[in-house]
Here is the input.
Amino acid sequence: MRKFWLLLGLLALPLPASAQEVSTRFGPEDANVRLLVRSTTDIRIFGPVIDAFLAARPDLAVDYEQWGSNPLFDLSLEDCTQERTGADVVISSGVHQMVQLVNNACAAPHVSALTTALPAALRWRDELWGITREAAVIAYNRDLVPPGDVPRTRFDLLDLLRPTASPYAGHVATYDVEESGLGYLFAFSDAREATTFGALLESLGRTGAIATCCSAEIIAGVADGTYLIAYNVLGSYAQVAALDDPRIGIVLPQDYTLVLSRALMIPKEAAHRIEAAAFLDFLLSAPGRAALSDVLLINPLTDKASAEERAPLSETALRPIGLSPALIVALDQQKRAQFIHRWRDNFSRGVRP
Amino acid sequence: MNSHIPRWKLSLVARVALAVALLLAVGGALVSVAAFAYGRQAAQDAYDRLLVGAATGIAASISVDGTDLVVDLPVSAFQLLALAPDDRIAYRVTGTAGEVLTGYADLPGPPDTPATGLDFYDARFFGEPARYVAITRRFAERNVSGPVEVIVGQTLRARRALALEITQRALVVLAGAGVLMSLLAVFVVRSALRPLDRLAEAVARRDPYDLTPIAVPVPKETEVLVGALNGFMGRIDQQVRAMRGLISDSAHQLRTPVAALRAQADLAAGEPDGTRRNAIVTRIHRRTVELGHLLDQMLSRALVIHRAESLRREPVDLRDAALEVVEAGDFALTAPGVEIRLEIGEAEVPVQGDLLSLTEAAKNLLGNAVKHGATPVRVGASVEKGRAVLWVEDSGTGPAPEYLARLGSRFAHNATSRGDGSGLGLAIAASVAQAYGGELVLETVRTGFRAALVMPLGEVTE
Here is the structure.
């Protein structure tokens, strides 16, 4: 699939915007500066944040393009190596890809009081910043999963899948690591975090779990009962969906919960660096953080009121995926090939006709 | 009060302070450069070890799978490199045939020096300066054999930050040391200059008439200065003493003849007999002449002593002095029956002195000889035993030995007791001889009695 995206990207070279999923224009049409934001974040979720920014900066307009994390990475890398003016701001949940872009000297630095106030894990080289706080959660269908079966930890999930005639076999979904940059990152982080991952991978593969590409699709599947349980779903999307759909239940795994901060960078070829930096500073400022919190992109996680399933997490169970050059390993050609090979091995073994 | 004294533009303290400041500045600059060099080296070494650690970790993670080399990139290696949190990471693993197994394909390779298995080199990484290490692991498997090269590089931000930090800390210590040394320098300079202050204080506190030597202990460097000062005061003291002696001697010597004159005059006033009164008047006249002579001698002595002690010395030929004495012919009048001979040779008799003083001294000696000795009287100048001698010799036997002994000790005193001024002449001669570093020698010789000024020989002028 990655090759497919690459191919599509290459075909669309004269009109790179065509590889995007959705594009929306914000702000006045006659604005002097139109900031091009490319992001993996769902436009319906991120829209209010941009509205809040434009309310503070009425002189600007924003063109928002929503991308898959892999095509966004490929496009940004291409812009960088060909020194082509592309996006003014790139925001991706595939933070390992963003780290790779910065390591390849594709980003422009920016320093302000707000960026220096960020903790070290949310900032790298003053070229990459973590702007959100989202958990990787287990989502389940409230109607179809009895309360006693709801997995609180990964071990619970393993236990559910262990019986040969488990009703959950074939009804557990997770990201496809090859198609979703975020899915790969979560799986990679899981593999680094605990030995549970091997067992889980084996279980998911054996029971014919479904690996698919996108958050929206997975959450919709959980809501309509196609999937009973979804593992490692991005919490922000699941929570937003759960607000409107009571069938969706959410669990923050108590053994450990991965915490993702979407990474933002300003490409060094950006046409409007100053405005891009202003956008970054807005996202890091109190109003920006409030706007992000409103759409659940910043989730307190340990706050009891926010945890849907009433079991508040201790801070020690949180495993933030920090912006560190160590994430470069995740994108290493051989490492990635080996990881995907291992993943495919497990999943293909259990695939049912 | 000291405003007329010419001064150095800078005080001693200012000069020393300037020197110390210069020393500190130059030393500080040198140490700063050294600190920076050291900081760079230390940072380089520290982060080079990280590079080697990471490269070794990566090299160890390479395994052989059938005919393929598999690199299972260890996260720990990258975590190690992430200890330099803001530096970008470059890496590459190339297989036995030089093919890129993983990593950045277009990294700069190590320089073409003979590979030692561990090479450090500097190159760029996406335009930013970076430090690389290349290590080689050799495989000797059935299907895979040959060197596998691992290159790991890192940009230099952390190194520079560490180097700067080390330098800054060193500079802080250095600045502290500088301040401390400045304070010590102030202390040392003050203590070194304290003897000078003490000396100045001692001099300022002295009574203006106190001419004794300065007894304040001084360091060796200022001994010369104090010695000169003491010598100067010594000379003043000597002159003051001489003046005092002259005045008291003069008063003493004048008292007796003046008292005698008054007595004679009283006698003359009470003498009714004309003939006897005439005799008394004749005595008064003779006494007056003697008194005049005594006054002449005293003035001469004062003059001679003054000249001898204050005038610059010049080369003088003693033959000139002898000639002058004889040619003046003063004694032709007072003692017409005395024959005076001049005895001088062909050779010059040089001394460093003053012709007038020496002549006066010799005249006094001649006066004594004429008065007390026997004719003929010889006056001469000669070089004897390496010394210059100006002598007067009469043909008599000289004074009695015990009297001569007393003469030897105190001419002036003797003169006052005698009241006739002959001792005064000897005193003048002795003073002049002493002023030129010589002595007055009185002795009985084969041909008579001889009084001689014996002085160090001067340089021959011709």
User: Anything to note?
Assistant: Chain B has eleven helices and 14 strands. Residues 409-419 of chain B have pLDDT under 50 and may be disordered. The first strand of chain B starts at residue 62 and ends at 65.
